[in-house]
Amino acid sequence: MAEASFKPPVFNDKTNASAAWKNLKQDLRIFFMASGLSEATEERKVSILLYTLGSKYTTVFDNFGQTEAQQKNYKHVIREFDNYFQPTKVTKLYMKKFEDQKQQPGETVSQYISALREIAQNCEYGDTLEQQLCKQISVGVSDRALRDRL
DSSP for 72-131? Predict the structure, then answer.
């Protein structure tokens, strides 16, 4: 009965659904442990997950084309949603946003670089991140002298 005092985590996908999904998975692990639901049936865990995601993603779940057994397997459902929320679906959008980012009036160079780094987190640049940052900083800073030096 201890689980009644715990509420499932909230899924907030308003800005970055991929990051929100990653956070939700961690929050659910903690919730299951704290509420004593770690040993709950797979089917119950799936139900809690779907309740937490809401009706929008319950429809996505219904369209996965799973067998009845797969629908009750928590690990399988998590993998299906992992595939669904793959950041590669929006990577090109973030790359375009990164390439279009220019230093704004009143924005310091440090703030500009921070904004670039934040966008770059979704670009999957990997080992080329520093090179991409240098390139974008050199074309995006508003100070012409600094741009020429870079």
Answer: T-HHHHHHHHHHHT-GGGTHHHHHHHHHH--PPTT--HHHHHHHHHHHHTTTT-GGGHHH
- In angstroms, rounded to a whole number, what is the distance separating the alpha carbons of residues 23 and 127? 24
| Regions of the chain with pLDDT less than 50 | 1-3, 89
Distance CA 102, CA 147 (A): 12
Q: What secondary structure letter does DSSP report for 38? A: T
Which helix (H) or strand (E) covers residue 134, if one does? helix 129-140
Sorted by sequence, the CB contacts under 8 Å of residue 30 that are 6+ apart come out as 9
Quickly list H helices, 4-90.
Answer: 17-34, 42-53, 55-62, 68-71, 74-84
pTM for the full predicted model: 0.57
Give tens-digit pLDDT for 43-63. 999 999 999 999 999 999 999
Q: Which residue has the tokens 């979704």?
A: 122
